[in-house]
Amino acid sequence: MAIFFNRVQRALPSNPKEKKWYASLKRISMVREKRVAKLIADETTLNNKEAEMAMSQLEKILLRELLSGNSVQLGDWGSFHLTCNSSMHETSEEVTGRSIQKLNVRFAPGATLKEGLAHAEFVPAETLVTHSKA
Hints:
By secondary structure, the protein is α+β, with helices and mostly antiparallel strands. The chain contains four helices and six strands; from the N terminus they run ββααβββαβα. A hairpin with a 2-residue loop joins β1 and β2. α1 (33-43) crosses α2.
């Protein structure tokens, strides 16, 4: 398995006239929920519908727990928690629920996921084009 990247040139935030080259990851495709459920079913004793139901329930429970102010930890895989963007005020009394402009879901990877990602192999995206034409 490989993760593909493109080479992109970007201006420096501190000096917009100066540009440097960076790696930018290239997503190959989107794996949808039904496909993930099928992959789970292929590797467990669940059938496709049971795997889809388990994923649907996980989504409902995750949302319910986050909206209850909880973080959700999924073993060593990682944890989900909420953060927010808020408007700025001069005094603490001015800060109300209406000050919150946007909720964000954050995922913090756990040890297992971090360890797995440490073995990533990176390949220039232009090799993907070469392989697909062959």
